[in-house]
Amino acid sequence: MWWSTNVPPSVTNATDVDLLPNSTGGTSILTTIASPAIIPGGTYYLGVQNANNVTVNYGIKVNFNVSGQFSGGPGVLISSITASGSATTLTWTGPAGAQFQVQWTDDLTQPWQTAPDIIGSSTSDFSYTDDGTTTAPLGPRRFYRVVQISQ
User: Fold this and answer.
1) Dist. CA 115–CA 100, nearest whole Å
2) Cα radius of gyration rounded to whole Å, the chain
3) Which residue among 46, 51, 103, 128 is buried most deeply as judged by most CB within 10 Å?
4) Do residues 148 and 97 touch, judged by C-beta distance below 8 A?
5) What predicted TM-score, i.e. pTM, was given to this entire model?
6) What is the residue extent of each domain of the chain?
7) Which residues contact 64 (CB under 8 A, 6 or more apart)?
8) What is the DSSP letter of 117?
9) CATH label, 56-151, candidates 2.60.120, 2.60.40, 2.30.29, 1.25.40
10) What is the pLDDT of residues 41-94, one digit of tens each?
């Protein structure tokens, strides 16, 4: 997993930080004394690299100002992102009865687009599949974020 404060990370950018080198999982804690420095309110990028020839399911959770609370708590926890050639499925947990929308962009220098679907669940399990029909045709890369719109 790569982290950058400048642009979306890549394995060729010397300023990017490899948070979990040679790892199949784990946790990395960044602080305001990290190098490069984390500035409150700043923009940061995380990237996941799959060095294998097979599909890998992964999830990323980012907590701010919640020291010691990395094992859950309120809010949204992305549990998996599964991509194939024809669709990407996001699965997450959140407050039961909440409603969410998924935002996407193919270029982080451009504005986020909001998918029209309202995702709800009577349980705390949620999912969204993007096959390009309600967003835009899927290209070589796409970035997602999940936004809670009601409790």
Assistant:
1) 10
2) 16
3) 128
4) no
5) 0.56
6) 1-49, 56-151
7) none
8) P
9) 2.60.40
10) 677 777 777 777 777 666 666 655 544 443 444 557 777 888 777 888 998 888
